[in-house]
Design brief:
Chains A, B: One of its GO terms (molecular function) is DNA-binding transcription factor activity. Two copies of one chain form a homodimer. With 200 residues, the first copy, chain A, is mainly α. The first copy, chain A, is 78% helix and 2% strand. Chain A has nine helices and two strands; from the N terminus they run αααααββαααα.
Chain lengths: 200, 200
Amino acid sequence: MPKISDEKRAARRAQILEAAWGCFQKEGLHATTMDDIIRASGLSAGAVYSYFPSKDQLIMAAVTASLSGLTSLVEPLLRAEPALAPPELVRRITDTIDRFTTRDGYDLKRIALLGWSEAQRSEPLKATMKSFYFDFRSELASAVARWRRHKSDTTGNPESDVAATLLSLVLGYVVQSAILDDVEPEGVTRGLERLTQPKG
Amino acid sequence: MPKISDEKRAARRAQILEAAWGCFQKEGLHATTMDDIIRASGLSAGAVYSYFPSKDQLIMAAVTASLSGLTSLVEPLLRAEPALAPPELVRRITDTIDRFTTRDGYDLKRIALLGWSEAQRSEPLKATMKSFYFDFRSELASAVARWRRHKSDTTGNPESDVAATLLSLVLGYVVQSAILDDVEPEGVTRGLERLTQPKG
């Protein structure tokens, strides 16, 4: 077989993952077969299996690729200087999620729900997600800590509580969006602003 | 067949659903067979099929039963007079979810994730969930409206935004708890309190 460049390998890998996400949304993780994905990818069976020897490996790669793709977009928000206020942070993170997950023919938010479900049965998948969400939450805590220092607010509860609250908000936004189809970053952010500026 | 009382029917139905939830947590919705559930229930195949003619009907019943069981516990919180402040509402709802979902041998929070996933492929299931979460969100909005009147706060954004934010928080709590295993109502509530009482 002729050698192909790293760039071409990455493009083919992405092409297979795109095909897999489309099939997963249509059929679910379990009913989707490698043959379905091969057909949808337009590549040969040999080519697809050379990248992903099993469906489990493909599922893991599909989850990892979506989590790390999202991370690269969200990290600059979490590390912004000066730190963003929590409502603004939520607005920009959910907005980024919306833009990153809405694709031609499928929505990665719906596929996230399939992934969480699968993680209940697959230890390696659960471990991968756990490590991603732990990191995300700890970056959220740092962002909150920097924002509080900026506001000269060092009293009270640890940042980790606020980070757990914000992570719930973001994860719940994904669920609400996938199931109810009618939420928007603006609405959830206005709601948080309303809560954070109570008029007595 | 001898007639059995309504009470006994309800108890048997609950016994079958208990068995189903246990199997679903162990094997997932798809790998679980009616035979698995029959075995776990300790009832005859005829008895189980007389309550639930198909696995799809059983899945629907398992979801509906858990949603309506939770509703009956959460409604008094949403309708409390005077209305609970949002952080207290979140604390008591997530606490209720924790107590309702933690069972002998399985956790309904994990099974909720399986249900959301299945709803991506089953329209009737998605419609059932949609209607439940819409109702929940609109009750949240009423609770917030009553709380704001109580606080003489009638300015600014509509309650529906706050309700969408609170629903995200609650749904995200379920995800975070099922995947990360380490959140508690107290932590998420302290985080929200911290956000709602910023020190300038």
